[in-house]
Design a protein that fits this description.
By secondary structure, the protein is mainly β. It has two domains: 46 residues; 348 residues, Pectate Lyase C-like (3 Solenoid), CATH 2.160.20. The chain is built from two helices and 37 strands. It has a 22-stranded parallel β-sheet that branches. Strands 2, 4, 7, 9, 10, 12, 16, 20, 23, 26, 29, 32 and 35 form a 13-stranded mixed β-sheet that branches. α1 packs across α2.
């Protein structure tokens, strides 16, 4: 089908080129180059259109297995798009892609709507919406867009993801990591987890937004998670309105079991647990666990809460066990019904400097369990005696 369309387009462009040349719109070509060669080149440079008719109805799969620029020309339903080639641009052009009611047979552990299969590079997916059918289908966790192991240089840009267990997943494995990928200006709504970096190194998420997520399934709720991954950057991202109505924790930004990850100029707002009874449910704006050499810079956490009936706690930022050699600088932790900055800080030489915490109902800073941490310029607060008093600001009754 693609070959036939290419031939038809070549013939059309040949006629168009010849007509334009006769009218003097296009100058004569240089000797030795035919009109067919030029028109074929023009045809190849144009995006290849994708329609619902291109979906294999027997498998519910649309496979892109050749390099090129592909342009979706209408909403695509009952389909999984499977990319199995290097050097692909998939432009959704403002359209929406949604999956079939059951998982195609070529998929194993997950059910994505768009998947970059393992081992491919130089791929861009952009400019459209991906809508799944909920957190699980056929007992399988759902993904909006998934990049499989050993893939690299994949860019996901200007995408909107709805109704999946994980909105966007960089799904590497140990020894087969996803590398050097970018998630730019994407929005995730109504998913259990917005963005996941799993065994993914040197990747970037920038300008992304995760919102209106809640857990109806069995998983904890999260905004952006970095897991078993190193040297990633999450910058200028926003996580808002995460609510956990069941017996799970909720975390806006969560990095664990990695090294050298950076969280910069991000915002977590309205993060909380609304469970009932005496469930032990915790809520975190930012959580670090078993991380080394991480940096949390110039972030704002505003409003982290647990309901009064819960036995859990709320934290603007919590540094759990195994956190070493990390820098927490220039952040603001405000308006939680728990603690602004809290944690164990592991056993390494962590530094917290020039942070601001206020209007947190339990503590602004609680460093009673801190080991080997230098906390600079902490002024005021509930526990001023346990900090070295320099430059962090904690004021009990302060409103900017």
């Amino acid at each position: 089908m693609k070959h036939v369309r290419s031939v038809i387009r070549g013939v059309v462009f040949s006629a168009l080129f010849f007509s334009c040349q006769m009218l003097g719109v296009i100058p004569d070509v240089e000797p030795g180059i035919s009109i067919w060669t030029i028109s074929k080149k023009i045809s190849e440079d144009l995006p290849y259109p994708l329609f619902q008719a291109d979906v294999n109805v027997s498998t519910d799969v649309l496979t892109i297995d050749a390099p090129g620029h592909y342009l979706v020309r209408e909403n695509l339903t009952d389909v999984v798009i499977n990319i199995t080639s290097d050097d692909v641009i998939l432009d959704l052009d403002g359209h929406e892609v949604s999956p079939p009611s059951s998982k195609p047979t070529f998929l194993s552990t997950t059910f994505p709507v768009i998947v970059v299969s393992s081992g491919y590079k130089n791929i861009t997916i952009k400019n459209g919406a991906v809508k799944h059918m909920g957190f699980t289908v056929d007992s399988t966790g759902t993904n909006g867009v998934r990049v499989e192991s050993n893939s690299y240089l994949v860019t996901l840009e200007n995408l909107r993801i709805f109704d999946a267990s994980i909105g966007i997943s960089l799904g590497g494995t140990s020894g087969n990591e996803v590398l050097d990928c970018s998630i730019l200006n994407c929005e995730v709504n109504d998913c259990e987890l917005g963005l996941l970096f799993n065994y993914s190194n040197r990747c970037v998420a920038s300008g992304c937004r995760v919102t209106a997520s809640s857990a109806a399934g069995s998983s904890d709720v999260g905004g952006i998670r970095i897991f078993n991954s190193s040297f990633n950057l999450v910058s200028d991202c926003q996580v808002t309105s995460l609510l956990c109505p069941a017996s799970q924790d909720v975390r806006a930004f969560w990095s664990s079991y990695g090294s050298g990850n950076i969280l910069r100029r991000c915002i977590a707002e309205d993060i909380g647990s609304a469970g009932s009874g005496d469930d032990v449910v915790d809520a975190y704006g930012i959580l670090l666990e078993f991380e080394s050499d991480a940096k949390v810079l110039d972030c704002i956490v505003n409003g982290v809460f647990v309901d009064s009936g819960e036995e859990g706690a709320a934290y603007g930022m919590y540094t759990g066990i195994g956190v070493t050699d990390c820098l927490i600088q220039g952040n603001k932790f405000i308006n939680s019904n728990g603690t602004g900055l809290d944690g164990d800080f592991g056993i390494g030489e962590n530094v917290a400097i020039q942070n601001i915490a206020y209007n947190n109902s339990v503590n602004n800073y609680n460093t009673a369990n801190v080991l080997n941490v230098t906390v600079y310029d902490h002024t005021g607060g509930v526990n001023p005696g346990v900090d070295i008093a320099y430059d962090n600001i904690a004021i009990e009754a302060y409103s900017p």
